[in-house]
């Protein structure tokens, strides 16, 4: 686990070097980032969570820093998650090819953000319910697996549509298999996840998690067309972001709280925590699309713009540069639109504003987590936001 | 919001009535004309077949419409609720953009609209009929749909069955796009866009079926129906496939033609109908044994139905156009291949695309062999097994209706 931790750091440093090559306009934002990266990650997160005012006392125990890295804290819980998912999928088919496609992305190379947050919340809520009893319930671990499976099923379906050849540093499924088979494999993962949900034998959990599927599809539909006026646009964007990204995290942690026997206010608190973390995560994702997509990274810059999508940085930039409006309306279809919009976003304060908004959601998540009973897991929940904000991929 | 002009295309599927046997015109079919403003005007055309009256055997169409009366409403209205949504209106809007391209999604949509008996649109109906035939135990009055004699939950399950099936058909209708396949960028864009709409529409139905199932608060049922979705997707990976994922027989598998055919069709049809019938008996509080019988009924009925569809191109009375394509893994072809391997020479030409085989040749070869008769026996076998299950229920309208459907389907 330690090596993963340092690998993570190395990756950051590497990308940091790449950042040095980006244009001058971005230097201001990047400077803020650079400052963060010069401090040790554990120290940094510690300092920042103090800033949110949620941690009045020092963390107990001799090694508070270690407890601060959620991935280290949950090393044991998370280490077999992918193996178990693969086994579950393999058990459900006798077709080797289906098995290969379905398990392709469960190679342990992903961030496992969803299982991590889910397990963290499970243990934190368990402690909250019964002080000192942080033991992870098998059903809660299942929810963590299910959340990653739902996420991956949606990745597979995204890959059918997007023509990208690479994902997570390896050929994407659509580069290796035909569209029909990938679509079917996505349905298969979803079906197996649904069976796992059913086996938890909890009516509310099933309802909560099936709502996620509906949200995901509705989010995709919202992304298809937008005719809303300028005023409605940001609300539309936020709703879409909730449905496409935050709903899965929010409802997974809610489900896990319900399994811990949480009452309505507590499970709602967990839901709101997940919602805020999810929104921040997507905001940062949208931001990175403008910042870290340099030619050096081998990924096309402004992928979202090319897909015709106006994300938060563009919507913020609109305030200063109204000429972006017609471009948004025509989904950046005309020659030069993408480049022009990209340029305007960087000239505006759109990126800063997006990061500010993401920070607000992270602060809110942290505030919510601070009302749970104190435990290493509860403290780690407060730190998750920093991972989200400072991530580079 | 729901609008006729945009959602009408999909909406009309609900009004289409199964066309009758022997290729006579549909009793009620609907056509739409495109108006100048781009909206569709839906007009109803009614043909009354004279054949119907003279037909001695229970007519397919009659059997279905009689059965629909028994459950109280046309089952084609079953899935009406999921159509009343922004998303579907949105899909319909996008479908219009695809008109003129040759994305198979249009064909799928069309077949859902007009559908011959090639689509088992009556699956929801079967689920309702078996529900009614079995009755229910210890259920509160509130939960019953008195007019139809089934539980609200059973009706919802019938809806879920149709949604799952439609979703699968729509996903199956994606196009596999290969580099260099299309010279024209426009054509490529159309197909990519079509794939996107097809994928989203299928996902929409799948997600809605999950929500609907969750609302029934029966976790065993959720697991059962999810496993049916799993089976459908697994079915698409069986055996050899051409570039568009159309199935091809292989010499190894046809050594046991019947087993091969059964494996394929249990996954792609029998499982869903079987598990739906099993599930509806579960909802009604019946014993595990009876639930098992329900599964067998649905499975055998679906297989009989599939055998019946497989026979279609080979019937003397059929309107089969010589040379047009049919399923190369249909029962008559598989049975023929089992006894005559030489036909594989022709089949192998379809390894890239099933369109490359000489269907006229395969058709006439199969016609001269035992494939047709063996398939008829297969259909009879499954029909009989379905009938046997029916006899465990008490006499009722619903039971008779199911018998009539089975009789109408085959020439028992």
UniProtKB/TrEMBL annotation, chain A:
<dbReference type="GO" id="GO:0006744">
    <property type="term" value="P:ubiquinone biosynthetic process"/>
</dbReference>
<dbReference type="GO" id="GO:0032478">
    <property type="term" value="C:heterotetrameric polyprenyl diphosphate synthase complex"/>
</dbReference>
<keyword id="KW-0414">Isoprene biosynthesis</keyword>
<dbReference type="InterPro" id="IPR000092">
    <property type="entry name" value="Polyprenyl_synt"/>
</dbReference>
<dbReference type="InterPro" id="IPR033749">
    <property type="entry name" value="Polyprenyl_synt_CS"/>
</dbReference>
<comment type="subunit">
    <text>Heterotetramer composed of 2 PDSS1/DPS1 and 2 PDSS2/DLP1 subunits.</text>
</comment>
<dbReference type="GO" id="GO:0042811">
    <property type="term" value="P:pheromone biosynthetic process"/>
</dbReference>
<dbReference type="Pfam" id="PF00348">
    <property type="entry name" value="polyprenyl_synt"/>
</dbReference>
<comment type="function">
    <text>Heterotetrameric enzyme that catalyzes the condensation of farnesyl diphosphate (FPP), which acts as a primer, and isopentenyl diphosphate (IPP) to produce prenyl diphosphates of varying chain lengths and participates in the determination of the side chain of ubiquinone. Supplies nona and decaprenyl diphosphate, the precursors for the side chain of the isoprenoid quinones ubiquinone-9 (Q9)and ubiquinone-10 (Q10) respectively. The enzyme adds isopentenyl diphosphate molecules sequentially to farnesyl diphosphate with trans stereochemistry.</text>
</comment>
<keyword id="KW-0460">Magnesium</keyword>
<keyword id="KW-0808">Transferase</keyword>
<protein>
    <recommendedName>
        <fullName>All trans-polyprenyl-diphosphate synthase PDSS1</fullName>
        <ecNumber>2.5.1.91</ecNumber>
    </recommendedName>
</protein>
<dbReference type="InterPro" id="IPR008949">
    <property type="entry name" value="Isoprenoid_synthase_dom_sf"/>
</dbReference>
<keyword id="KW-0479">Metal-binding</keyword>
<comment type="similarity">
    <text>Belongs to the FPP/GGPP synthase family.</text>
</comment>
<keyword id="KW-0496">Mitochondrion</keyword>
<dbReference type="GO" id="GO:0008299">
    <property type="term" value="P:isoprenoid biosynthetic process"/>
</dbReference>
<keyword id="KW-0443">Lipid metabolism</keyword>
<dbReference type="GO" id="GO:0046872">
    <property type="term" value="F:metal ion binding"/>
</dbReference>
<dbReference type="GO" id="GO:0097269">
    <property type="term" value="F:all-trans-decaprenyl-diphosphate synthase activity"/>
</dbReference>
TrEMBL record, chain B:
<dbReference type="GO" id="GO:0005739">
    <property type="term" value="C:mitochondrion"/>
</dbReference>
<dbReference type="Pfam" id="PF00348">
    <property type="entry name" value="polyprenyl_synt"/>
</dbReference>
<feature type="region of interest" description="Disordered">
    <location>
        <begin position="236"/>
        <end position="257"/>
    </location>
</feature>
<protein>
    <recommendedName>
        <fullName>Decaprenyl-diphosphate synthase subunit 2</fullName>
    </recommendedName>
</protein>
<dbReference type="GO" id="GO:1990234">
    <property type="term" value="C:transferase complex"/>
</dbReference>
<dbReference type="GO" id="GO:0008299">
    <property type="term" value="P:isoprenoid biosynthetic process"/>
</dbReference>
<dbReference type="InterPro" id="IPR000092">
    <property type="entry name" value="Polyprenyl_synt"/>
</dbReference>
<dbReference type="InterPro" id="IPR008949">
    <property type="entry name" value="Isoprenoid_synthase_dom_sf"/>
</dbReference>
<keyword id="KW-0808">Transferase</keyword>
<dbReference type="GO" id="GO:0042811">
    <property type="term" value="P:pheromone biosynthetic process"/>
</dbReference>
<dbReference type="GO" id="GO:0004659">
    <property type="term" value="F:prenyltransferase activity"/>
</dbReference>
<dbReference type="GO" id="GO:0006744">
    <property type="term" value="P:ubiquinone biosynthetic process"/>
</dbReference>
<comment type="similarity">
    <text>Belongs to the FPP/GGPP synthase family.</text>
</comment>
């Amino acid at each position: 686990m330690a090596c993963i931790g340092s690998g993570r750091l190395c990756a950051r440093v590497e990308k940091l070097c790449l950042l040095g090559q980006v244009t001058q306009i971005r230097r201001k934002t990047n400077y803020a980032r650079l400052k963060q990266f010069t401090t040790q990650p554990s120290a940094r997160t510690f300092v920042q969570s103090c800033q949110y005012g949620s941690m009045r006392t020092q963390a107990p125990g001799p090694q508070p820093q270690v407890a601060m890295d959620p991935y280290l804290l949950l090393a044991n819980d998370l280490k077999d998650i992918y193996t178990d998912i693969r086994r579950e999928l393999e058990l459900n088919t006798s077709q080797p090819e289906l098995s290969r496609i379905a398990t392709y992305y469960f190679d342990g190379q992903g961030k496992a953000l969803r299982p991590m947050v889910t397990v963290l919340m499970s243990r934190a809520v368990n402690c909250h319910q019964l002080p000192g009893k942080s033991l992870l319930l098998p059903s809660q671990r299942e929810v963590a697996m299910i959340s990653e499976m739902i996420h991956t099923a949606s990745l597979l379906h995204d890959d059918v549509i997007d023509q990208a050849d690479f994902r997570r540093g390896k050929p994407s499924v659509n580069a290796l298999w035909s569209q029909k088979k990938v679509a079917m494999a996505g349905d298969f993962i979803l079906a197996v996840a649904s069976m796992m949900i059913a086996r938890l034998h909890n009516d509310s959990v099933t309802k909560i998690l099936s709502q996620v599927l509906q949200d995901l599809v509705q989010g995709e539909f919202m992304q298809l067309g937008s005719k809303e006026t300028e005023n409605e646009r940001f609300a539309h964007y936020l709703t879409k972001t909730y449905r496409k990204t935050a709903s899965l995290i929010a409802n997974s942690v809610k489900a896990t709280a319900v399994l811990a026997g949480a009452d309505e206010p507590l499970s709602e608190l967990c839901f709101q925590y997940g919602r805020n973390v999810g929104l921040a995560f997507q905001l940062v994702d949208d931001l990175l699309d403008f910042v870290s997509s340099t030619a050096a990274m081998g990924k096309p810059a402004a992928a979202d713009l090319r897909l015709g999508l106006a994300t938060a940085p563009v919507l913020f930039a609109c305030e200063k540069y109204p000429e972006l409006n017609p471009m948004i309306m025509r989904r950046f279809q005309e020659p030069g639109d993408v480049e022009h919009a990209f340029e305007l976003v960087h000239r505006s304060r759109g990126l800063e504003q997006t990061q500010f908004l993401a920070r607000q959601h992270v602060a809110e998540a942290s505030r919510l987590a601070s009302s749970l009973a104190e435990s290493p897991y509860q403290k780690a929940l407060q730190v998750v936001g920093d991972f989200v904000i400072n991530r580079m991929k | 919001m729901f609008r006729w002009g945009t959602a009408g295309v999909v909406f009309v599927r609900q009004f289409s009535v199964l066309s009758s046997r022997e290729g006579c015109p549909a009793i009620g079919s609907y056509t739409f004309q495109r108006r100048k403003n781009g909206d569709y005007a839906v007009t109803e055309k009614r043909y009354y077949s004279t054949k119907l009256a003279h037909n001695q055997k229970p007519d397919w169409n009659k059997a279905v419409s009689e059965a629909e009366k028994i459950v109280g409403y046309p089952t084609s209205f079953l899935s009406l609720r999921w159509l009343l949504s922004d998303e579907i209106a949105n899909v319909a809007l996008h479908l219009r953009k695809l008109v003129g391209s040759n994305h198979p999604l249009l064909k799928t949509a069309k077949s859902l609209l007009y559908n011959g008996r090639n689509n088992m649109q009556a699956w929801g109906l079967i689920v309702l009929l078996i529900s009614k035939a079995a009755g229910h135990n210890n259920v509160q009055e509130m939960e019953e749909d008195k007019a139809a004699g089934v539980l609200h939950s059973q009706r919802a399950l019938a809806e879920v069955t149709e949604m799952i099936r439609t979703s699968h058909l729509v996903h199956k209708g994606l196009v596999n796009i290969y580099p260099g396949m299309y010279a024209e960028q426009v054509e490529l864009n159309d197909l990519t866009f079509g794939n996107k709409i097809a994928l989203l529409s299928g996902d929409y139905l799948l997600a809605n079926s999950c929500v609907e199932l969750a609302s029934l608060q029966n976790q065993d049922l959720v697991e059962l129906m999810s496993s049916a979705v799993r089976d459908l997707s697994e079915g698409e990976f069986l055996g050899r496939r051409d570039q568009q994922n159309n199935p091809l027989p292989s010499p190894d598998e046809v050594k046991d033609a019947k087993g091969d055919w059964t494996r394929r069709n249990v996954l792609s049809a029998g499982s869903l109908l079987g598990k739906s019938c099993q599930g509806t008996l579960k909802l009604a509080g019946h014993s595990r044994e009876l639930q098992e019988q329900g599964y067998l009924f649905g499975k055998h009925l679906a297989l009989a139905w599939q055998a019946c569809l497989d026979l279609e191109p080979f019937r003397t009375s059929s309107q089969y156009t010589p040379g047009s394509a049919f399923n190369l893994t249909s029962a008559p072809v598989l049975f023929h291949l089992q006894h005559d391997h030489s036909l594989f020479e022709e089949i192998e030409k379809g390894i890239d695309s099933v369109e490359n085989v000489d269907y006229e040749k395969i058709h006439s070869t199969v016609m001269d062999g035992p494939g047709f008769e063996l398939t008829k026996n297969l259909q009879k076998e499954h029909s009989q097994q379905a009938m046997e299950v029916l006899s465990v229920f008490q006499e009722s309208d619903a039971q008779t209706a199911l018998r009539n459907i089975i009789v109408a389907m085959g020439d028992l």
